[in-house]
Structure prediction request, 116 residues.
Amino acid sequence: MATRAPAAGRLLGGVRKWYYNMCGFNKIGLMRDDTIYEDADVKEAIRRLPEAVYNDRMFRIKRALDLSMKQQILPKDQWTKYEEVNLHEQILMFCLFLKKKDVEHCFSLCRFKCHA
Prediction:
């Protein structure tokens, strides 16, 4: 029975990767976190991102808007890869959604120093 868990994990990972590629936002250089609706909590999480991460995010969004207006996609070698996805924005937003009192603990999960 122990051998079934790794196989199931690989299968689930394959399904995740397939779904990520089928969504299409990676073809215009976006990450999944770039596509979520920005309510007050998400805006607060984005405000707390380090400047370099924020600038990268804004570049991806502006490039995607430009490509969308031109009805083009990026060359395949420039698509966002599933393996490149960072969880830093997900962690911040998750913590803010839960309204954690210990926000610094959530920030310690990130690999960068967050702005308070």
The domain at 4-108 is CATH 1.10.1090.10 (Cytochrome Bc1 Complex; Chain F). Residues 4-23 form the longest helix (20 residues).
